[in-house]
Amino acid sequence: MLKVRGIEHVAWAVHDIDAALVKLRDLFGMEPTHREYVESQKTEAALLPAGESNLELIAPRGNESLARFLDKRGSSLHHVALEVDDLAAALEVLRRAGVRLVDEAPRIGSRGHKVAFVHPAATGGLLVELVEK
113-133, pLDDT tens digit by residue? Predict the structure, then answer.
């Protein structure tokens, strides 16, 4: 059985991370604690703590899928990331249940965490990222 430890982050797709960071600081006093280019996903990411979870701003830096998402929907919720203890085991549980996956195996994501995505068709429309710290 798959066990979710909590919401690791909620990802917000934006065209301009710098502008979004200024707005979030001015509106809510939020400051980023981490910023990086994620090679495996060809995105720039900035992490802002929000209680026990995080808000992650993501912008395409070569990620054509994310660029198309922004062109179609504009700046908006992109995905919700759920923390799991054992990502490989979680993917196996989902695979055996016939769940459609974007990633069949874990890959390295932001902050060096193992990540994999569940296809939105499997969840009723929301892209879900599974994260193993």
Answer: 999 999 999 999 999 999 999
